[in-house]
Design a protein that fits this description.
The protein is α/β, with parallel strands linked by helices and 87 residues long. Helix content is 21%, strand content 21%. The protein has a five-stranded mixed β-sheet, with helices on one face.
């Protein structure tokens, strides 16, 4: 899974990469992504363009505030979350 993340210099990046995911910068990556992981960016401020979408079904977004790395990974893998948005 290709996951765009706000700040790649975190332990979450390493954790997700160790689980086999490709982690890319939310602000510098201009190709399709499977999910976006954010903690401080407002949904309306996400720098997503048509280049980030693989089809018309949208992008899976997980808000990380209050979640452990394990909970984030689980929600990504299950594509389910209380704080889920499809953008």
């Amino acid at each position: 899974m290709v996951i765009a993340i706000e700040d790649k210099d975190t332990d979450l990046t390493e954790f997700l990469e160790n689980k086999g995911h490709a982690v890319v910068s939310l602000y510098d990556y201009h190709r399709p992504v499977d999910a976006v992981v954010i903690s401080r960016t407002h949904l309306y401020d996400l720098p997503l363009t048509a280049e980030n979408f693989t089809d018309s079904s949208g992008v899976f977004v997980v808000y990380t505030e209050g979640l452990t790395n394990e909970e984030i990974a689980s929600r990504l893998e299950q594509k389910s979350s209380d704080g889920l948005s499809l953008f």
